[in-house]
Fold this protein.
Amino acid sequence: MPSQEMSVKGSFDVAMEPQKDSDAPVGRMLIKKQYSGGLSGSGTGQMLSKQTESGTALYLAIEEFEGSLDGKVGSFTLVHNGFMSAEIQTLEVKILQGSGSGALENISGSMEIIQADGGHQYTLSYGLG
């Protein structure tokens, strides 16, 4: 029987540290996040990005979350895929299937990130079965 989909909301603080890669024509940053709310813990990862002269941009990131979700302790991987042009802006953040551990071993789902008033909020929709 499939698990019921649940969701949690909260906020996070993020620090990004640019990395110098003179051999690659893309930007790379280290990501460090601190989550609060229904998702409580830390995220660490790396982001690759590219912006064209016309302003079209894309970023891809892999983030490892460790902490608790609705009181269940464990970890999982988030995969970010963002695109922006003058006409469109999209962001898809999914939990990597099979990446969960601890009480979050069978987790699946996706995250919506909202930037407002200089901060970051999230809604994580997930299942555990």
